[in-house]
């Protein structure tokens, strides 16, 4: 007995075995994704987008190197000036160990009176040490180090005054100023000079220079921001059709924005690395002349470059500027690209 469509053909010699109908699933299936799987998927996507952004930059080496060169120049100038000021400041800090006050005595004062005056200063509680330099001793040292010995020998009188060098116990600026004023009021003293006054002026100039470098860094940082933003804008315009298609298939703004943000980060990182390399080469060129100069002054000072902290600050600030410039450009121009 035969039956059509769905019936079972029965033969007397065979037992009948029921056949279960095939299970066919239709429609979407629901899968539960845990937090770990979501995190791994998010990380894989970011790594893939980061690699793709670098590959795209390397695919246009000329345009990429031109942009990176502009960024490197803008980052090199404030970084180099910052290291110069740091070296000058560290050099002046080594000279502030002992503050000395030099008293130039009246030329009419005899050697015995000048020596007696210097001995009387030892009785003062605010003075730690006194060094007396007579007129003849000062002339001998001046002939030795000035190179004008023949000219000075032709003089009939010694024009140099006796000098008393004092080491004050206090290093406060206010106390030193009062001490200097009190010594200048004495009849034996022609002039009182604080040896570190020029260092104080230098510190004031360094403070102004630091503020100027900070302002210059802000301006050049703004230039880096604008350069990266304009570059990302051009990249967005060149990929307008791709962005439209991505939004048509349901891509979110965050997904579309991600490649451009990584492009900005790569621009900032490459620019910072080139700037760091230029600064290091500049310091290598200055190292030998600086050592020769310090040897002439019998100093142990050595030039220091950016160091770990300066290099880290340069890299982090450049990467942050790259990301921020890309984010501003994408936020401004991405909203204008919508599927019609």
From TrEMBL:
Composition bias type Low complexity, residue spans: 13-25
Domain FtsX extracellular: 101-191
GO cellular component terms listed in the entry, alphabetical order: cell division site; plasma membrane
Membrane topology per record: Multi-pass membrane protein
Regions of compositional bias (Basic residues) in chain numbering: 1-12
Limits of the ABC3 transporter permease C-terminal domain: 215-332
InterPro entries for the chain: ABC3_permease_C (IPR003838), FtsX (IPR004513), FtsX_ECD (IPR040690), FtsX_proteobact-type (IPR047590)
UniProt-annotated location(s): Cell inner membrane
Keyword line: Cell cycle, Cell division, Cell inner membrane, Cell membrane, Membrane, Transmembrane, Transmembrane helix
Origin: domain of life: Bacteria
Region (Disordered): 1-30
BP GO terms, sorted: cell division
Keyword Protease attached: no
Annotated transmembrane regions: 62-85, 212-232, 265-286, 306-330
Known function: Part of the ABC transporter FtsEX involved in cellular division.
Family: Belongs to the ABC-4 integral membrane protein family. FtsX subfamily.
Complex and partners: Forms a membrane-associated complex with FtsE.
Protein name as annotated: Cell division protein FtsX
Taxonomic lineage from the root: Bacteria, Pseudomonadati, Pseudomonadota, Gammaproteobacteria, Oceanospirillales
């Amino acid at each position: 007995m035969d039956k059509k469509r769905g019936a079972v053909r029965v033969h007397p010699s065979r037992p009948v075995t029921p056949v279960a109908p095939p299970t066919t699933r239709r429609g979407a299936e629901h899968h539960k994704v845990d937090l770990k799987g979501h995190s791994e998927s998010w990380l894989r996507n970011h790594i893939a987008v980061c690699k793709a952004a670098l590959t795209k930059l390397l695919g246009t080496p000329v345009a990429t190197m031109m942009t990176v060169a502009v960024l490197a120049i803008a980052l090199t100038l404030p970084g180099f000036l910052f290291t110069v000021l740091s070296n000058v400041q560290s050099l002046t800090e080594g000279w502030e160990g002992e503050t000395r006050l030099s008293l130039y005595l009246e030329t009419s004062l005899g050697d015995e009176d000048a020596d007696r005056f210097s001995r009387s200063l030892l009785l003062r509680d605010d003075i730690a040490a006194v060094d007396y330099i007579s007129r003849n001793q000062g002339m001998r040292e001046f002939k030795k180090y000035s190179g004008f010995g023949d000219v000075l020998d032709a003089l009939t009188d010694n024009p140099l005054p006796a000098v008393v060098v004092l080491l004050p116990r206090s290093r406060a600026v206010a106390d030193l100023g009062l001490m200097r004023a009190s010594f200048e009021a004495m009849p034996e003293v022609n002039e009182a000079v604080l040896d570190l006054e020029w260092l104080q002026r230098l510190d004031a100039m360094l403070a102004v220079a630091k503020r100027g470098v900070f302002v210059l860094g802000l301006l050049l940082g703004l230039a880096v921001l604008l350069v990266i933003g304009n570059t990302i804008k051009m990249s967005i315009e060149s990929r307008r059709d791709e962005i439209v298609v991505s939004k048509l298939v349901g891509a979110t703004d965050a997904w579309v924005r991600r490649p451009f943000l990584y492009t900005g980060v790569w621009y900032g990182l490459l620019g910072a690395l080139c700037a760091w390399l230029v600064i290091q080469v500049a310091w290598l060129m200055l190292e030998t002349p600086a050592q020769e100069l310090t040897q002439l002054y019998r100093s142990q000072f050595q030039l220091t470059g950016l160091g770990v902290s300066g290099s880290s600050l340069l890299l982090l600030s450049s990467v942050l500027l790259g990301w921020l410039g890309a984010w501003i450009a994408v936020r401004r121009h991405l909203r204008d690209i919508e599927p019609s």
